[in-house]
Amino acid sequence: MALTNEKIVSDAINYRRSVRIFKNDPIEDEKVKECIHLATLAPTSSNMQLWEFYHVVSPTILDQITTASFNQNAAKTAQQIVVVVVRKDLWRKRMQSNIDFLKSIYGNKPKSDYSKRETFAMNYYKKIIPSIYFDFLGILGIIKFIAFQFIGIFRPIYRQARQSDMRVVAHKSAGLAAQNFMISMAAINYDTCPMEGFDSLRIKKILHLPSSSEINMLIGCGIREEKGVYGERFRIPFEEVYFKL
Prior knowledge:
27% of the residues are buried. 47% of the residues lie in helices and 11% in strands. It contains 10 helices and 4 strands. The radius of gyration is 21 Å and the shape is globular. A 4-stranded antiparallel β-sheet has the order 1-2-4-3, with helices on both faces. By secondary structure, it is an alpha+beta fold.
């Protein structure tokens, strides 16, 4: 579905602000859904896509989420809320989806007929991904971490091998998707507010999520009130954060 009245990317980025108070004006479900679809086009580590998006439009569920979000204005006045969920526990399923996709584009042929590039891609998902994501009570992660640090003395090697490391990786990918969503919303003059202030256990119960899932962020959605943006945008001077080498 094509979105109308779109801004160019730089305009959308400059327009986007964290809006704490939304108008009581409705927004279109389908437009928000399309922005969520654009969120799924964000880059993601190893194309694992360990994310889910819950598009909350039910007034009852919105009220429950608002209570679990400490009744903050960005939730209380939101017309809709999008919950970005990390599903690191689905790594096997997502891995297999990638393998199935590769087989579909490489064709039904014997392994011996794969090119070097095709063989590497298949082995990446069949061997490397399990070696990184599989763990047992954190023990294997510690062993891999120590082994990789030792190997790293002699050559460059991927060092993030613990459960906590892969958790960070999954959240980074989800954060990229969330930013895609918010910029897409800004492009059609819809406003958002990413929220980290909430009771994650209650949110998971409201959405009937498994305990192995993690809430990346809540995003309030609507149209901004003039007083909904709390002051001028402040950023550290660019010269303090930009380094050209």
